[in-house]
Amino acid sequence: VFGLLTDNAHALLALLKAHEVTGDKKYIAKAEQIAGFMLSELKDDNGAFFDRAMQSDDIGYLKERQKQLMDNAVAAHALLKLSAMTGKEHYRGAGREALQEFSHSYVHLGLHAAGYALAVETYLNPHELYIVGKKDAEDVKEMLAAASAYFDPRMAVRLLNPEEDISLIEKKGFQPSFAAYLCADNKCLRF
What we know:
Blueprint: H1 5-22, H2 26-42, H3 69-86, H4 89-101, H5 114-124, E1 127-132, H6 138-149, E2 155-160, H7 166-172, E3 179-184, E4 187-190
Parallel strand pairs: 1-2
Antiparallel strand pairs: 1-3, 3-4
Helix pairs in contact: 1-2, 1-3, 2-3, 3-4, 3-5, 4-5
């Protein structure tokens, strides 16, 4: 989605949810493309995101891009989840920077800062669920369905295929056989 931060941030979250539900990595690849656009075209030097990409034919007020807390909160939340799902720390750093930019102004927004609070909570207390197994296996499908039925907006669900993701499986200290690992506070519980 070209142009608007809000469209790109929500599309990024939708793609991450599609991966969580299906385990299909094509959604992660597309999410990373959108994140790349956001970081290259919408991010300012202080870490926050502008509301829209600059265009050469902008006139009048359109030449003045804005930085909105609510859109930045959604973008930060999406980038934090993308970092958890890919293991790429630069997404986490970008999410943190966007949150820091508004750390003094959110208090004046009361309930309207709820999205910001959620993004901060996701940054401070991320929850990750890793499912090790093959996407087409029935037990993996059941686990993905169960994970989708439980709503925790901080949760990032990632399917790890033992044949394709063995280095990450080993790095995390997981077994390459079917299992689920719920991770929080740098600790993982296998079930």
